[in-house]
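Q: what sequence does this backbone want?
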């Protein structure tokens, strides 16, 4: 009887060798980097030889690993192709979506119930990641991207162009100084985006001169974290309107000043050119467009 090896460990080997990175392999598999590293160690222990060498840039296949990796990679690609054929035949109806965590949590996920009601036969899988997914290498049907819409070789469908609005806890605004002009926001702590650029650009758009107070305040790399910090009364957040609508409607946040500012970036649905030939993907993209317009 041949040696039986854990499928997860073999998949970790195939993906780490494909990308030369444990982190990217983890993203492809939807697990943590630690889980991939553990599976690679397990596999090396089982076969009794080193399959990877670690470098400052990631991982590289050893001579032994390089000999078997192409075979392993083809095997998993054949499995993926088999699943694609099952879905194309209607045996399995599924759509995998990838988008940034903020958009997934604040806009997409709360609406998915409506899609399921319309298409109960379609299983939707949502991957929330800030990493730009490669649709040619990852098993993702639709990527929802925030950018300028320049994605060569892909089908690009505009969805929406959010505006930046300043929001804060109603209690914070009630207890603090009044805000009637954009410059008045500087009297409060400013909750910042990760590169601390949005407040500066917003204030500049309303002709507010540079001020050292613009740079102060905590910084967050996701909009939903900015929204939560604003809810907690930690300052004023400048966020995309689609991320704060529910909180404003519920009274957990208030618009500090009615001065929305159009952002340069918009949201787009991005697919491979042939992806919408699958009925499940076509149905999801059509639904997504309707929801965005609504």
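A:
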């Amino acid at each position: 009887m041949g040696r039986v090896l854990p499928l997860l460990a073999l998949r970790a080997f195939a993906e780490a060798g494909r990308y030369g990175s444990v982190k990217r392999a983890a993203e492809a598999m939807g697990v943590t980097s630690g889980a991939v590293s553990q599976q690679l160690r397990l596999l090396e222990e089982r076969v009794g030889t080193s399959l990877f060498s670690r470098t400052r840039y990631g991982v590289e296949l050893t001579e032994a690993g390089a000999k078997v990796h192409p075979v392993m990679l083809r095997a998993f690609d054949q499995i993926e192709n088999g699943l694609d054929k099952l879905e194309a035949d209607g045996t399995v109806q599924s759509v995998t979506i990838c988008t940034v965590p903020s958009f997934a949590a604040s806009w997409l996920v709360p609406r998915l119930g409506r899609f399921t009601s319309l298409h109960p036969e379609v299983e939707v899988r949502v991957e929330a990641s800030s990493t730009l997914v490669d649709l040619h290498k990852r098993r993702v049907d639709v990527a929802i991207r925030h950018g300028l819409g320049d994605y060569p070789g892909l089908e690009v469908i505009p969805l929406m162009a959010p505006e930046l609005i300043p929001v804060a806890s109603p209690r914070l605004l009630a207890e603090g100084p009044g805000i009637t002009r954009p410059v008045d926001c500087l009297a409060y702590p400013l909750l910042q985006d990760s590169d601390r650029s949005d407040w500066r650009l917003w204030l500049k758009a309303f002709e507010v001169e540079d001020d050292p107070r613009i740079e102060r305040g905590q910084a967050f790399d996701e909009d939903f974290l900015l929204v939560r910090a604003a809810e907690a009364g930690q300052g004023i957040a400048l966020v995309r309107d689609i991320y704060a609508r529910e909180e404003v409607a519920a009274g957990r946040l208030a618009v500090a000043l009615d001065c929305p500012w159009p952002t340069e970036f918009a949201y787009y649905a991005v697919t491979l050119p042939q992806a919408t030939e699958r009925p499940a993907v076509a149905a999801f993209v059509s639904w997504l467009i309707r929801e965005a317009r609504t």
